[in-house]
Amino acid sequence: MKYLLCLSLTFYFSLMLAQQKEIVLVGTMHMLPKRLKNSYKPLFKKSLAYQPEAIFVETVRPEDSLSWAYLKNGHNESLKNFYQYSLKVREEFDFNQDTLEHLLSKDFQQMTKDDFKKICLSFAYQLDYPNFYYYRYVQDYFPEGHKKSKRHENYELSRKLALKLGHKKLYASDDQQTNAEFHQHWQACEKAIDKTPVKRKEKKIIRKIVLREVFPSIFGRYGIVNNKPKHLELLDSLSGLKYTDMEQPDCAKAVDYFKQRNKRFAYNLGRQIEANTFRKNILFVGASHIVGLKKELNKQFPNIKVILFNEL
Predict the structure, then answer these.
(1) d(Cα 118, Cα 107) in Å, to the nearest integer?
(2) Nearest to 270, CA basis, from 56, 27, 99
(3) Distance (Å, rounded) from C-alpha 185 to C-alpha 190?
């Protein structure tokens, strides 16, 4: 009897683990310098082997009006131009959700030039930045993706991986609602700590980061070292201004805004993972956000298993 009970419990927990949703966090370097143009290759290879069912990217969701209120006049020229283009499309294009779903149900090889045009216009109408550019990518590079390195995470990781796996959509999950405030206090913090012991602390962290990257970069492992736990901690401390110990008001506010972004980012991720049917998920995001996102995901969504790229 005890044996049967143990066997039943073992089977039950094995089944639960098999059904548990998970997300792999992959730290990126955004745009690579030319001398490190192939650094995304090992990240792509390992991500492909994982075979994710959903790919999340560091872009704001179409419905996030507060983030777009900032981005439409923000520092990213591509997003600014896309926002203006979306306004123009809304004036001229007759969007229909059923038509879009029908077009997306087709295999890529069955889509015509007119289909791709309507799909791109539909995503532009919806302010869906990642999928607008994904379908332009599919149209240009189907079926194997581009061959020559374009050095950017969107090309080298998310779009190329999605095409390779035959995914019909990418999933936006970022939040930039308070980025303007973050940059304002970040700049004020930098001025406040100039020529102080805290500034020397910042330079020491930068030196540690660079020294950790030098030799791996020579052997094409720049992307790999950026996903090592110790390196992620250094990046989190530097980009999140945590090394300042928040002794100066502007530094404290900048740290808080950095944490707020990670908190909302994690919420966007978790809610979408819970809502969809996919078990294996992957996120490509600037490496400095990994530590904060892992902490927030574990806190807000304990039922979702969080895996660092280094653990694959």
Answers:
(1) 15
(2) 56
(3) 9
**pLDDT for 98-126, tens place per residue?**
999 999 999 999 999 999 999 999 999 99
Q: Which amino acid belongs to residue 256?
A: D
| Side chain identity at residue 110, one-letter code | Q
- Distance in angstroms (rounded) separating the CA atoms of residues 166 and 110: 13
Tell me if 152 sits within 8 A of 29, measured CB to CB. Answer: no
Encode 273-287 in three state secondary structure: HHHCCCCEEEEEEEH
Distance CA 224, CA 42 (A): 7
- Give whole-number Cα distances, 242 to 47, 184, 237, 267, in Å: 30, 16, 5, 22
Q: What is the pLDDT of residues 246-262, one digit of tens each?
A: 889 999 999 999 999 99
User: At 262, phi and psi to the nearest 5?
Assistant: -65, -35
What are the phi and psi torsion angles at 145 (to 5°)?
Answer: 85, 170
The two three-digit tokens of residue 214, written as one number = 């030098």
Query: What single-letter DSSP state applies at residue 146?
Result: -
Tokens 């390779």 belong to residue: 164
Cis omega (within 30 of 0) on the bond before 143? yes
Give the other-Cβ count within 10 Å of 211's Cβ.
Answer: 9
Residue showing tokens 């973050």: 182
Query: Can you give the pTM of this predicted structure?
Result: 0.93
- Return d(Cα 211, Cα 201) in angstroms, integer: 15
Contact status, residue 240 vs residue 257, Cβ threshold 8 Å: no
What residues are paired with 67 via a beta bridge? none
